[in-house]
Amino acid sequence: MRKPESVMPQDTPFETESKAEIVFRSVTKRFGSLVAVDHLDLEIGQGELVALVGKTGCGKSTMFNMISGLMAPSGGDVRVMGHDPFKEFDWFRGKMAIVFQNDRLLPWRTAVKNVEFGLEMLDISKAERRRIAMAWLDQLGLSGHEDDYPHALSGGMRQRVSIARAFATNAELLLCDEPFSALDEITSKRLRAEFASLVRKNSKTAVFITHSINEAFDIGDRIVVLKRPAEIAHDLRISPETTDAEKAEITTMIHESLSK
Amino acid sequence: MNDATTSSTKLSLFAVATGQKIFWTVAPFVVIAAVWQFASQFFPPFLFPSLVDVFARVIDILMTWSKLSSVLTTAMRILGGLAGAFVIGAILGFVMVQSKYADRFLSPVLTFFQGIPALSWVVFAIIWFHGVEFRILFIMIATTLPAFTFQVVGALRSMNKDLLEMVMSFRPGRLKFFTAMVLPAVLPEILTSWKVNLGNASRVVVVAELVGSSGGVGFQLLRQQQLFDMAGALAWTLQLVFFVLLFQRLLSFIEKVAFRYRATSERRL
User: Which residues of B touch A150 (CB under 8 A)?
Assistant: First the structure.
C-alpha cells in the first residue's frame, strides 16, 4: 500500500496505525480504450485533510466519483469506511457530504432551505433542521441572507451556502471537487482558510481535489500528486512548520514531475 | 428631493405604467367591438347582432342555472379530460424515461396518435362507446395524451444533471428524490403544458359535444346554428373563452407564486 513520502518535513511520519477511511486497492477505471485510473493503491486515514493535485484529465474526478459512489471501478477495490461506496450506496447516507466545483444550489430553495436539504434526507425534524442550518449560515457569515434565493447571492456566498450544506449533515467524510476554482483569488483564499479551519475544528476527514499547487498547500495536511493515468507521482506530508523555501522546492518538484 | 416627493414620483410612475398596461390590453378589444357594433347597424342580426343583445345573452346564460350548468359541464369535461390525460401521460412519460424499450415502443405510437384528427376520435368514440360522458372523456384523453406525455418526457430529460448528482450525493429515498428534486424541476414545463393543452382541449370538447352530446357549450352552439341565432352563438362562445381565460389566469398565478425564485432581468428580449 502506498505511503506518503517523508519529504517535508522529515520529522512528520505518517500515522500508519490510523484506521484508513478510504482505501484504493489496485483500482483501475477504463472508459472504452481510455485508462483513466491504472492500478492505483492509496490509503487515506481518519481525520486527514488530503489534497489531490494533478493536471486536467489525470483522473482526479474519476477517483472522486469512485469514492462518492457515483461510479464503479473497472477493476480492483474501493473501500470507504470499510464499505463499497457504489454497491452499498445508501449505507453512506449522512456519512459523506460533497462540495462540488459549482455550488449546485437548488434554485427553488432559499439559502436556509438549501442548507437544510441534506438534513431533510436524514429525517431530522423541521425545527432542528432550521436550528442547525441557521447556525451554519451564521458561522459562514451569511446571517441575514437565509431567505435569499441563490440568484440573489454572489458566487462566493453561494459557495459558502454549499459548504454549509455539506457541513450541516455532520458527515464524517467530506469530498470537495475544486470548490473554489470558479471564484476570484481573494474570495477563494478566504474560503479555503475558512474551509480548512472548519474541517480541522470538526475533526472531519476530507479529500480535496484541486489543480492548483498553492491551493493544495493552503488546504492539505497531505498532498497526493497524480500523473496520468491517475498514478501517484508524489505523496507528501505538509505541516504548518513547512517553510516557504521548502514549499517552493516541493512546487518545483511537482511541476517537474507533472510536466514529464 | 425629500422622501415624500420621491414616493409621490414613484407612485405616479407606477400609475402611468399600470394605465398603459390596461390600455394596451383593452384597446384591441374596444376597436373590434366598435367595428362589430358599427357593422350591426347595416347588417341583419343573424349576421352581426348588436353587442347589447350579445351582452344580454351572456348575462342570461350566467343568471339561468339550466344554461350555466351547460357551461360548467363543459368546463368539468375539459378539466376532467386534461387531468386524465395528464395522469396517464405522466405515468407513460416516467416509464419512457426509465426504460429505453418503453421509449422505443411508445414514441412512434404516440406520434402516430398525434396525427389523428380530433374529429376522427369523435367518430371512433361514437362507434365504440355508448355513454356520452365516457365518449367525451375518451376523446379528450386521446387528443391531449401524446402532447402531455412528450412534455413530461422532455421535462424529465432536461433536468439539470449537476443538480441531480448533488441530490443523489445525499442518498435520498425515492419519495424524497421525487418531492425534493423531480417535482420542482419539472413543474415549470408541466404548467406550460397545461396552458398549451387547455387551449387544445377547449376546441376539442366543443367538437365532441357538437357531435356526440346532448348538453354542454358544443351542444348549445349546435342549437344556435339550427336557429340561425348569431347572438346566442357568440354568447355561448364567449362563455367558453371566459372559462379558458379564467383558468389561464389561475395557472399564471400559480406560476407567479411557485416560480418567485426565478431571477428577472431588467432588459427584455
Answer: 261
